[in-house]
């Protein structure tokens, strides 16, 4: 196929801020987890598909399959939709309190 680029799992984008490997990155409406460290404006590869441990709002419990959103102000996952970007679903329950949860990206 002449127009095929790749499977879209990994995409290189300009880092919107200084990021460390494993941190969430939102560019426009596209979300992924940084594969490497990068300074703001530098190219960073983000992983857009898969199951990841992610920082979450500590004072939330997650049930299996609940919608997970990215809060681009606090740079963490949440189940609060308002003002946030839908990125995937909780892949496992997460307790309240806890700092991480398993997220299956869209």
- Calculate Rg over CA atoms: 14 Å
Mean pLDDT: 97
Please bin the fraction of helical residues. Answer: under 10%
Can you count the helices?
Answer: 0
Portion in beta strands: 35-45%
> Which class of secondary structure composition applies to the elements?
mainly beta
Largest pleated sheet? 5 strands, antiparallel
Q: Uncertain spans, ≥5 residues at pLDDT below 50?
A: none
Strand order of the largest sheet: 5-9-8-6-7
Number of strands: 9
How many angstroms separate the termini? 25 Å
Notes on the protein architecture:
It is a single chain. The chain is mainly beta and 106 residues long. Helix content is 0%, strand content 42%. The chain is built from no helices and nine strands. The protein has a five-stranded antiparallel β-sheet, with no helix packed on it. A four-stranded antiparallel β-sheet has the order 1-4-3-2, with no helix packed on it. A hairpin with a 4-residue loop joins strand 6 and strand 7. The mean pLDDT is 97.
How is the topology of this model organized?
Elements: E1 10-14, E2 24-27, E3 30-34, E4 43-47, E5 51-55, E6 67-71, E7 76-78, E8 85-90, E9 100-105
Antiparallel strand pairs: 1-4, 2-3, 3-4, 5-9, 6-7, 6-8, 8-9
Task: Give descriptors for this structure.
106 residues, mainly beta, five-stranded antiparallel sheet, four-stranded antiparallel sheet, 9 strands, globular
């Amino acid at each position: 196929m002449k127009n095929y680029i790749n499977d879209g799992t990994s995409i290189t984008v300009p880092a919107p801020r200084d990021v460390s490997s494993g941190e969430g990155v939102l560019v426009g409406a596209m979300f992924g987890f940084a594969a490497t460290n990068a300074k703001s404006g530098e190219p960073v590869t983000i992983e857009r598909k898969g199951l990841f441990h992610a920082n979450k709002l500590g004072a939330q419990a997650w049930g299996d399959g609940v919608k997970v959103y990215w809060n681009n102000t606090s740079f963490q996952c949440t189940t609060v939709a308002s003002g946030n970007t839908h990125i995937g679903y909780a892949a496992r329950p997460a307790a309240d309190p806890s700092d991480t949860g398993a997220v299956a990206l869209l």
